[in-house]
Request: fold
Amino acid sequence: MFELTADFSVSFCIWKSHGTVSYSVGNSSLYLPLSIGVDNAGRPKVTSTSCRFEVDDSSLIFYGKHAWFFNFLARTFKGAIYGFFQKMICSAFRTEVNKGAAKYFGNYQVNKTVGPLFTVDYRLVSPPSFNASYMEVSLRGETFWTKKRSRTSVPVPQLPPFVAKNRTVYFMLTDYVFNTLGQVAFRQELLQKVLTYKDLPSDQQYFFNTTCPRNLCFGKLIAQTAVMFPNSRAELHIKTSERPVFTISQSSLDISFSSNIIFYMRRPNGNSTYIFAIKTKLDIQLHALSHDIPTKGRLTAAINSTSLSVGILNSAIGAINLNLLNTLMDTIISLYVRPQLNKLGAFGFPLPVWSTKTRFQNIQIIQAQNALIIGVDVKYVKDEMLWNFGHHIAGFNYKEENPQRSFQVVDGNSGQRRQPIKL
Reply:
């Protein structure tokens, strides 16, 4: 039950009257079917298609001067008055749904940036679909070069079967999302590096030296360089030979890099000399982390383990001991590659958060074939999506008699009533 009250005044020629009017409604039902689609920007679009407001009983009572006359009119024209309020309430609800939903989903960021160079396209590719248990929303999930967009050629994997259990929302991020990022980085030639001693930690920069009386260094692992290039430093010209491959399965989360590395010696006089070239494949096993999802809406990751295979392409300094070369490369991975990749993993990958006032909690990460499934419960900051309907109903004050009110929900396709939703 609820009651609307307002002050009124009437003036007709020399006849004037004023007072208070109260409109109270007993048990009521609101039927408000919604249409959920996609707007031109790829955002969700929610509109009210129709409305029906029904009450079991209602009364309109006037108080004040000449109240008896107005109450007589109210009893006489009860049906017309009820129809007026029915249209007014439905109009207010439909207006608030249409405007409120447009404002709310207008905040949905269809493009999420990954640093200054990449943009993830989270536009809806089709209207949301519904079944008896859940709503499913399909997003593009493709990564582009921010300055110039062009489609990638990464194949789209098949989605794994999944049954939602105990979380409000589930994000399914397939390896397609991450592989498009890798392809764009490869196309833009970002996955290459001239690695020098300056890139190593300050207390480990000696490692690229060919002359090192006490510590393990380049010259002790590749012995020829200590003799041929004394007091020199190694430089590595690294370039990936193909895009990184990201693979998700139920048991692992992996990324692999295939690269060619050319080694040079930088002599004391500043000249450089080619010494040998290798090809490598670095396989990295990751684990996904959830600690930045509640506050930043980002999925992060860290390295569990690495595995490297090395092949010598050619050499200008004679035979190279493959075991010592592996030791050299493992040390370089430990000193430079692993810390850098962990930094990128800690920066994180943005999830398609639809509002700045949305908060995720009770995070659950599930690995499936070709996809990471992230289950969350959703919490909204106070007043988010809290629409003040009374404000739109001709300025009336709204007083709630029964806080346990309910609305009937009608299936838009079948017209069948579902169980009331308690509010």
Remarks:
- The CA atoms of residues 23 and 60 lie 5 Å apart.
- The longest strand covers residues 272-289.
- Residues 383-423 have pLDDT under 50 and may be disordered.
